[in-house]
Every structure is written in C-alpha cells, then in structure tokens.
Amino acid sequence: MYKNKDDILIHAVFDMGPLLYKLVFQSSSHQEDLGVTRTQLQALILLAKKEPLNMTQLSKEMGVSRQQLTRVVDGLVEKRLAQRVESPVNRRMIFLQMTDKGRSLLEGTIQDCAEQLKKELSLLTEEEKDILIHSADILRGLSVRKAD
C-alpha cells in the first residue's frame, strides 16, 4: 500500500491532524461559558503568540479568507475577548489584540486542555513520551524552516 517511509509519514500526519485538533481543542468549561467556537479560540491562541496582528496577517496565519475572519473577529469583539486598534502610523490599518477577558478565557481553556492531555499522556510509557517529544521537535523544526 505504501511505497516508502515518506508515504507512511504523510498518511500518519494526515491521520494525526484531526485527532490532535480534537484533543487540543476539546470543549472546556471556560470556552463553553462564553460560546466561543474553535475557530475563535484558534484566533485567540495566535493573537496571544503574535499580537497585535492585522486582519491580513491573522487570516494568513489561520488559513482562512478575510471574509471568514471578519465574522470570527466580530464575534470575539462582541464578546469583548479581542479589540480592534487603529495603527498610530496609518489609521486605515487596523490591528487586533486580546483583551484581559480574552487572556483570562484563553488561560482557563489552556489549563483545561492541559489537564485532559495529562490524562491521555499518563497512558504512555516513558519511552513513548521521549519518542513523542523528539517527534514534536522535528515537526517544529519543519515548521520553522517553512516560515523562513
């Protein structure tokens, strides 16, 4: 079925994507309390790492169209989890940044997800954990090379 190790890895990555997404973005009580979607949560995570971002930057980071992102951001602004801020240099340039309420929601959600992940990871042996750590480092390295 598979011709070589690259094919095996490609299929494994495609299989893992949805599983990891589900594992990381499982509903948390914090997320549910405010009715935040997974896409809105993804936007908050990116803002936490790279804020402030303009709409073009955020849409590229998320891999969604600007139209889709506008709906996502409108929801975050309406819930007071993020805010639009004019650039002091160019008033036509609008940046997005998280509010304190957004940071609090994200911290609580990450805590909930981390607790769930710890339960799942406790089922692994130390050797399996070492392998996953090494694999994650390799994947991060690929991601960094792609960004350059």
From TrEMBL:
One of its GO terms (biological process) is response to stress. InterPro entries: HTH_MarR-typ (IPR000835), MarR/SlyA-like (IPR039422), WH-like_DNA-bd_sf (IPR036388), WH_DNA-bd_sf (IPR036390). This is HTH marR-type domain-containing protein. It comes from the Bacteria. It holds the Pfam family MarR_2. Residues 6-141 form the HTH marR-type domain. GO terms for molecular function: DNA-binding transcription factor activity.
